[in-house]
Design brief:
This is Helicase-like protein. This protein is α/β, with parallel strands linked by helices and 960 residues long. The protein folds into four domains: 224 residues, Tandem AAA-ATPase domain (Rossmann fold); 184 residues, 3-Layer(aba) Sandwich (Rossmann fold); 79 residues, no CATH class; 213 residues, no CATH class. It has 35 helices and 23 strands. Strands 3-4-2-5-6-1-7 form a seven-stranded parallel beta sheet. Strands 8-13-12-9-11-10 form a six-stranded parallel beta sheet, sandwiched between helices. Strand 5, helix 10 and strand 6 form a beta-alpha-beta unit. The two termini are 13 Å apart.
Length: 960
């Protein structure tokens, strides 16, 4: 007996591809996702997709709860529904992270677009390069651009009809309602009327007006104008109404809400002190004093501050790190001595350029670095070169180089062995793996540490991770990884992505220590490692938190030990560590730094610049202490007093019962989908593949299409009984799509299906009672088409031989059984035709009721906006009247003639304004009513729909 008939395959394929609007809408993206999903993430993604009439929603989960995953689910579902004009707008430093996450977790194709990419691809072409480039890519890949690039090129991006736009770190545009907010205004106007998903952990930081600003990014008609919002919600504090209005477009879950099913481990801080020798300390002091000079040739005029920061950080990292930069500066000065020409370029070799990116985190070269421009020093030497001063400066740099080269001891690197011993002892105590992640801000220090550890106790146990990963050791690991994974879809074809994967796998499976530059703090998940060493500690709290987040995240089974190096002879270093520990609370507790704290400091550039200024200007210990006291006081109100109940009251929309229901429902749905996809594949690849049901995999021996490779394919989410290598078999893969198409187009004429319950290994009570009986079954598909969204609903109508209507679940269970196609034993009875028509009609009514509910919801929103606008006009009259009454009272009470004249003029002016406002009130009301009617008309047009019914098949059923 054939297990999977064409009828099975057609039903399964329709189930897998149906465009749903219920809680099962995410089925396709959940099935294809290569990530453990939590109920709150599914709930958030469903919230984003819930109402096709909305222009967008804001997802505002606290840090670490997976907003990127939630957005990935939405994008994956859009892709599955063939809505593939998709755009992600995010900070430049997160672009690659987004690309990696979507590729690894959802198998979605992405492309990071910037000026360099476009120019390279469109070299030699004329016309609108960016538009033509995007036109070629949109639909085949998800485009990822930076905030700045999108702002600069918005005229091009708004020419596309995006199906969905994701804006990450949306709080950066919270002042979008202000006319002078360039970025916010660009996003607000450029993506108006397009569906948007805004992501931010900090939707509200200092003022409720920030919520208003974010609302204007989503939809201009969520609230009235800013004056109304200020008056109603900011001044009057009508928070109940505000929460009610926000419920439809803001979704937020707090970390404390999910502790029931997400286990967060603790952070434990350890300080590794080291005492520099007199020689090391003297070199540091001499270079620091040199950097404090107002006017030097060594530091180019345009980038004096930046070069000084680099030198200071490299000096603190290791002597080897600062040597390269000093040597580059020496070459620059010698060239200046030879030519007599002053240069403003920052002359760094390739390795120092990498240092620059690691330390200062410059944005990509299409973006302006405003921070550097603002702090450039203008007190540099004129173009004329003073030969004696230059000669003395060259001698000074040579002295620094010789001093660094002749140092007999590196106290810091010696302390690293102690730190590793301490850390691994902690790991043994906790029962965790003996693995350590070491962060440095210098690629030279990275290489130095690598060689030192290889020679001291850790031979063949160390791997490096940087922005390029081009060193010989990393290349060797990469080549071995390519050979091992040949013929599998682990290889993406992108060398950068594949190198990262190879190095992380090597660290996980073979090495004990990973030494990373700042590139390792982005987009890398290292839950299997719970020892982190900050060999160089950044001054930016967000970068520290980002580092710790590589290990201390969902999935980490052990407490994370964070070891911070501390120079005992450097007062500034001690105060930096104190600030990060005591004020920002980065290193202790279950959750680390809260998003409320980190949200106050934006990108951290401000605090980083202020610390850099302390290093540059303060000489005595008293000056240093005073400067840090001032800095901590400046952040005190932002850090110590962030518990504002208003914030949680406004945007906390957690519902445990909903999440529990989703958890059960999702599991059941995914189990069904595995069976449906397996069944469709068996049907489609009959004669082309060998199937292994024990391991839920198959060996493709004959390709149905030229581009589909032969080999082993593994069904996702099924526990294999043995460790197997092969291609991940996903719904959206070319082979998966081909199999689904075979199922959808299978020939299914009316026939009798004899289902075999007798030999089925499991008990199904619902079917058992009908064993030996027969009846009729029809599968229909209701297709609803509208301007905003298409939807499909599968409807089973099934009855027994006596004509009794059976429940839908009976039909679903029936197709779990294998069947054999036979000739009809009787003609389809007329009463069954009527039953089918009635059943389909009932489902149509439910669909219309749901669409009417959405329409009513949007109508109420538009009416609320119109009411806001009218209220604003009436409030203006009230304000003028109140002000006029106050002036009248003052006029009555004053005896000062000059004051009387001034007040009389004000009263007359207010009277004129009042008459004008009253006269214009009717016109304003008419205008608002016209706008309201136009919006309602547009809404109705968008929801106008056509409903069609397609019969999939009709069968006579028998159960033996």
């Amino acid at each position: 007996m054939n297990e999977i008939t064409a009828y099975h395959a057609r039903y399964f394929a329709n189930e897998l591809t149906a465009r749903r609007t219920d809680d099962n809408r995410l089925s396709q993206s959940l099935f294809d996702a290569n990530v453990d999903l939590n109920p709150h993430q599914i709930d958030a993604a469903l919230f984003a997709l819930k109402n096709p009439l909305q222009d967008g929603v804001l997802l505002a989960d606290e840090v670490g709860l997976g907003k990127t995953i939630e957005a990935g689910l939405v994008l994956c579902q859009m892709w599955a529904e063939r809505k593939r004009q998709l755009l992600i707008v995010c900070p430049a430093m997160l672009r690659k992270q987004w690309a990696n996450e979507l590729s690894e977790k959802f198998a979605l194709p992405t492309l990071v677009v910037d000026k360099a990419v476009v120019n390279t691809a469109m070299k030699g072409t004329k016309g609108a390069k960016l538009f033509n480039f995007c036109k070629e890519q949109v639909g085949s890949q998800i485009l990822i651009v930076s905030h700045q690039f999108a702002t600069k090129e918005m005229a091009t991006f708004q020419r596309f009809s995006w199906d969905y736009v994701v804006i990450d770190e949306a709080h950066k545009m919270r002042n979008a309602y202000k006319a002078n907010n360039k970025m916010g205004q660009a996003m607000r106007n450029g993506f108006a009327s397009m569906r948007k998903l805004l992501l931010t952990a900090t939707p509200l930081q200092n003022s409720l007006m920030e919520l208003y600003g974010l609302s204007t990014l989503l939809d201009e008609h969520l609230f009235g104008d800013k004056k109304f919002f200020q008056r109603e919600f900011v001044r009057r504090g009508n928070l109940a109404e505000l929460k009610s209005r926000m419920a439809g477009f803001v979704k937020r879950t707090l970390r404390k809400n999910v502790l029931e099913y997400i286990r967060y481990t603790e952070r434990k801080a350890v300080t590794q002190e080291f005492m520099p020798t007199d020689g090391e300390h003297l070199l540091y002091e001499q270079i620091s004093e040199f950097l404090r000079q107002d006017s030097v040739y060594a530091l180019p005029k345009k980038h004096k501050h930046l070069t000084a920061v680099i030198l200071r950080k490299l000096l603190a990292s290791s002597p080897q790190a600062v040597l390269g930069t000093l040597q580059a500066i020496l070459l620059r000065l010698q060239k200046l001595q030879e030519t007599g020409q002053s240069h403003d370029e920052l002359l760094l070799d390739e390795q120092n350029a990498d240092e620059l990116e690691n330390i200062v985190q410059l944005e990509s070269d299409e973006e302006e670095n405003e921070e550097i421009d603002e702090i450039s020093d203008e007190t540099q030497p004129e173009n004329g070169v003073n030969a004696s001063v230059l000669t003395a400066e060259i001698a000074q740099i040579k002295h620094f180089i010789a001093f660094a080269q002749n140092l007999q001891q590196d106290s810091k690197i010696t302390a690293l062995l102690t730190a590793l011993q301490t850390g691994f002892a902690k790991m043994a105590e906790l029962g965790a793996e003996q693995k350590a992640l070491i962060f440095t801000e210098s690629t030279r220090t990275q290489k130095y540490l690598f060689e030192y550890l290889q020679e001291n106790c850790y031979a063949d146990e160390v791997v490096m991770f940087s922005g390029t990963n081009n060193d010989p050791h990393s290349t060797q690991i990469y080549q071995a990884w390519l050979e091992k994974n040949q013929g599998t879809d682990k290889i993406t074809g992108s060398p950068d992505v594949d190198k990262r994967s190879a190095l992380i796998e090597h660290f996980r499976d073979k090495a004990q220590i990973l030494i990373a530059t700042e590139a390792g703090a982005e987009g890398v998940n290292l839950q299997f490692c719970s020892l982190l060493i900050n060999y160089d500690l950044p001054w930016n709290p967000q970068r520290v938190e980002q580092r710790i987040g590589r290990c201390h995240r969902y999935g980490q089974k052990f407490d994370v030990v964070v070891i911070n190096f501390l120079n005992k002879r450097n007062t500034v270093d001690q105060r930096v560590l104190q600030l990060l520990t005591e004020k920002f609370k980065l290193f202790q507790g279950v959750l680390g730094a809260s998003d409320e704290v980190l949200g106050q400091i934006e990108s951290g550039v401000d605090i980083e610049n202020q610390i850099a200024n302390i290093y540059a200007t303060c000489r005595s210990e008293a000056e240093i202490q005073q400067a840090f006291d001032h800095l901590q006081a400046q952040f005190a109100d932002k850090i110590d007093d962030r518990i504002q109940q208003t914030k949680d009251a406004l945007v906390d929309s957690f519902d445990q019962s909903v999440l529990e229901r989703l958890k059960v429902m999702t599991k059941d749905r995914l189990n069904n989908m595995q069976w449906w996809f397996w069944g469709v594949t068996q049907f489609a690849l009959t004669g082309k593949a060998q199937f292994n049901p024990q391991d839920w995999c198959f060996l493709l021996q004959q390709s149905p299409q030229g581009a589909i490779p032969l080999g082993r394919y593994l069904l996702p989410r099924k526990e294999q009984k043995s460790v197997l290598q092969g291609y991940e078999y996903r719904l959206n893969s070319p082979l998966g799509q081909w199999c689904l198409e075979q199922g959808l187009t299978a020939e299914t004429p009316t026939a009798c299906l004899q289902f075999d319950y007798k030999n089925y290994p499991e008990k199904i009570s619902l079917l058992e009672q009908y064993q030996g009986q027969s009846g009729w079954l029809s599968l229909d598909k209701i297709v609803v088409q509208s301007a905003v969204e298409n939807q499909e609903n599968l409807v089973f109508t099934v009855c027994d031989k006596q004509g009794n209507l059976l429940e839908q679940e009976f039909a679903e269970k029936l197709f779990l059984l294998p069947a054999e196609v036979q000739s009809l034993s009787s003609l389809k009875p007329n009463h069954f035709v009527n039953l089918t028509l009635e059943n389909v009609a009932q489902v149509k009514i439910k669909i219309n009721e749901e669409n009417d509910r959405l329409l009513k919801q949007e109508m109420l929103r538009i009416q609320a906006w119109a009411k806001d606008q009218l209220q604003a006009a009436e409030d203006l009259i009230k304000e003028i009247k109140e002000t006029k009454r106050e002036k009248d009272r003052e006029l009555t009470l004053t005896d000062d003639l000059e004051k009387k004249i001034e007040l009389q003029e004000q009263v007359m002016k207010l009277g004129k304004q009042l008459r004008k406002a009253r006269n214009e009130l009717d016109d304003v009301q008419d205008e608002i009513e016209e706008q309201e009617l136009e919006l309602l008309k547009q809404l109705k047009t968008r929801l106008q729909q056509e409903m069609m019914v397609e019969n999939v098949f009709v069968i006579e059923w028998q159960i033996n």
